[in-house]
Amino acid sequence: MSTELLTEDTVLSYLIEKKIISAIEKADVEVLTGGVSNVVLAITTKNQKMVLKQALAELMVAQKWEADQRRAIVEANAIALFHKLSPNQVPNLVFLDPERFILILDRVPVGSTVWKSDLLDGVINPDVAEVLGTTLAQWHNFGEKDKAARMQFMEDSLFEQLRIDPFYRFVAAKNELLNPIITRLINELEGDKTTIVHGDFSPKNIMVGMDDQVYILDFEVTHVGNPVFDLAFLLAHLLCKKFRTDEPLEEKLLSAAAERFISAYEAIRPIASSLSLHTALIALARVEGKSPVNYLDTGKQSALVSYTKDILGKGDQISIVDLFQRSKG
C-alpha cells in the first residue's frame, strides 16, 4: 500500500489542514537529505522547529527494496517511549498521521552535526560512543523488564524486511560457503525476544550538538528481539570507516570508539559472545548487501570483504577489541 507523498510545495497546506501551524504563520520549508526510506522535510516557524517524515513504500537504493509504510507508526510509538526515558537525547513527538504514514517531531538544535559525517571528516570523539553505549544498555534493560512496553513492538515483520532480508539473507544468497554461519546468526536473532531493539542504531541516525549533547533518531525498525543486533549494527559502521581511512590516528580513534562503546554497555549489561560475527556479517553486507556504503573504493571494499569473510568462515567469536585490532594489522 502506498499513499500520496508530501513535497516542499504541498507540505504547508497539509500542516495548516492538520492545525500544526496556522494559516497566518510564516513558515520556511527545507528538504533534508541523507536517508533512503522517507521524505524528510524541515519546517521552521517563529515558534517551532520541526521535522516531518513520511515513509516511502520503496526505498531509494539500487536493488528493489519494498518496505511496509506502517513503520512510521512504529517509529512514532518508539519516539514517544524513548523520549520519556531519555528526554535530552530523543526529540519530542509532535504529531502522527497513521493514514498517510507521516510523523512530525521537534528538530534537534540547529548546528548539530550528523555523527556519520563527523566520522568521515576525521572528527572522531570516542566520548560520543561511550554515551551511546550507556544509553543503549539502559534502553535494553528497560525493554527487558517492562512487558507492557514490549507489547507495542512485538510485530517483527519490519525487521525482516529492512534488516534480516537485505543484510543477512541477501549476503547468504551470494556466499554459499557462508550459509551455515549466516543461518545460525539469523536463528539467533529470530529466536530471541528479549528486549526492545532500536534496529537502526547507526552513525547516520545520531547527531551531536555544539555542546556535545548526543541525539538519537530514526526508530522505524524498533522491534522486540535480540539486543546483539543494535551493538553489531553500530560497530559494523565503525569497522567500515576504519577500513576507509589511511590515517593512523583516525584508525586508532575509531578502534577506541568501538572499545568505549562496548565497555560502557558491558558496565550495565552483558554482551553476546557472537557479537563479533554479527558485526563482521553486517560490515560485509555494507559491500555485498542491498544497501552498500558509498565511501569505500574498490580496493578497500575488497579488503573489508576478505577480512569479514575470513572471520565468518572460521566462525571466530573474538572480542571486539581483537576484531578492530586485527582488521588492518
Topology (SSEs and partners):
Blueprint: H1 11-17, E1 28-31, E2 38-44, E3 49-55, H2 71-85, E4 93-97, E5 102-106, E6 113-114, H3 115-120, H4 126-145, H5 147-151, H6 157-174, H7 179-190, E7 195-197, E8 206-208, E9 214-216, E10 223-225, H8 228-244, H9 248-266, H10 275-288, H11 298-314, H12 320-327
Antiparallel strand pairs: 1-2, 2-3, 3-5, 4-5, 6-8, 7-10, 8-9
In short:
This protein has helices at residues 11-17, 71-85, 115-120, 126-145, 147-151, 157-174, 179-190, 228-244, 248-266, 275-288, 298-314, 320-327; strands at residues 28-31, 38-44, 49-55, 93-97, 102-106, 113-114, 195-197, 206-208, 214-216, 223-225.
Question: What are the key terms here?
Answer:
single chain, five-stranded antiparallel sheet, Aminoglycoside 3'-phosphotransferase, Chain: A, domain 2, Phosphorylase Kinase, domain 1, about 325 residues, 12 helices, alpha+beta, three-stranded antiparallel sheet
